[in-house]
Amino acid sequence: MQLMNDGFSAPRLTATQRRVFDELLAVGAARPTAPPGLADELRQTIADGVADLAPAWPDGPLYLTKGSIASVLACEGRYLAEQEGPPAGATPPPVAAGIVTHRAIQLAHTHPGRPVEEYVRAAALGAAGENAEFAALWDDGIAAQSDVLAGAVSRVTAFLDSWPPLDAAWSPRFEESLAARAGLIRLHARPDLILGRPRPDGRRTMLLVDLKSGRLREEHHQEAQLYALVCTLRHGLPPWRSAVFSLADGEWTDPRVSPDSLAAAARRVVAAARAAVQLKTESRPAALSPGEWCRRCPRSPACPAAAPGGGPRPAPSAEGPPRPPVPARQPFPEAAPDARDDPYALPDPATPQAARGAG
């Protein structure tokens, strides 16, 4: 197999890349196995938790995403406001820079060796040709374009300087959609980066990563665990790790995925689904909860509860009888490294095994 970036080898990594290589990717380390039936248990937990909502929601599945779950559990008023759709107009420059960043990182992988500015400009032109709101911003003139390009160049550079080159043996995928059904719920997730693939021997090798331009917050760990839950339901096997990575400081959330963390994510889905159905069917009024999210809420100027700076995050509200918790499991057992060629286990590109490739 041809290695990326002119025969890349581990000793050529910068100190920051080496830290990600060793501590987050843990290339060459043993991968744990998953107990059989875990995905089915999680799916049943969600289905049972919302089964009594079926009469109130008879017309097909309830679609939930990372954003809708976080929104309804933070402030139900903001959730309802967002259900009305995004405000009309051009894409805000920070959002546009994020769109460009993700595409440019993909281009840097598929077409290595070119200047960052070339990736960013190609990604921006592609977005302008595909998205009317992005095009409206892009057509606003060179000042708006400069804000988008400069922001994206900074973020893409931060990624390339922080991450080792992504070897083809790791099966990297960018913004791959994951979807799974559990009872009347249909979950959707789209991590920025996925490495590894499901293994038929039950070994957990997949790594899910979402990229953020700013500092990490508590809810980012919950987002990463939701990605892990959707991946588990989709493939029948949990990922090895799932994390949110900050391009600002090179830190990441706790990447460990366990039966308990997946069960907690499933309970959050149930709480969000119950609240969403109750609000959409107008069976109760929305609870207004101030917080930092008020700054991004379209109803904030007229909201009686809005408070700049926000207050403590409220506990999720979900009416109805309490749901039994998922029984605690023992940690996933560790598996011994496989000496055979393995395209899914993130082999070290510096080793002869990686040089031979997957086949």
TrEMBL record:
This is PD-(D/E)XK endonuclease-like domain-containing protein. The keyword Nucleotidyltransferase does not apply. It comes from the Bacteria. It comes from Bailinhaonella thermotolerans. Residues 68-304 form the PD-(D/E)XK endonuclease-like domain. The keyword DNA repair applies. Keywords: ATP-binding, DNA damage, DNA repair, Helicase, Hydrolase, Nucleotide-binding. GO terms for molecular function: helicase activity. InterPro entries: PDDEXK_AddAB-type. Residues 302-359 are annotated as: Disordered. One of its GO terms (biological process) is DNA repair. Residues 311-330 have a biased composition (Pro residues).
